[in-house]
């Protein structure tokens, strides 16, 4: 279960990062001069959300992996 969460989290971080980088590089030369720039801004924000969700999932999986073997009194 934890391995699956880490795999999904890593995928979200990787794909979200690529999505943001790609759309920010497409946005930079035009910088609001074309209507398509709104699409690029939206997709860059979506990529940022994907990175954020993936990071939270990764942290949760690491936390669960560290606390599974520890019993609290």
Q: From the structure provided, what is the oligomeric state, counting identical versus distinct chains? A: single chain
Report how far apart the termini are: 25 Å
Q: Which value, in Å, is the CA radius of gyration?
A: 17 Å
**Count of helical stretches:** 2
Task: Indicate the structural class.
Answer: mainly alpha
Share in β-strands: under 5%
Q: What fraction, in percent, of the residue positions are helical?
A: over 70%
- Give the biggest beta sheet: none
Please tell me the overall pLDDT: 78
Question: Helix and strand succession?
Answer: HH
List unreliable stretches of 5+ residues.
none
Number of E-state strands = 0
Shape field = rod-shaped
Description:
This protein is an all-alpha fold. The chain is 84% helix and 0% strand. It is built from two helices and no strands. It has helices spanning 2-30, 36-67. Helix 1 (2-30) packs antiparallel against helix 2. It is rod-shaped and about 55 Å long. The two termini are 25 Å apart. The relative contact order is 0.22.
Quick structural overview:
With 73 residues, this protein is an all-alpha fold. The protein has helices at 2-30, 36-67. It has two helices and no strands.
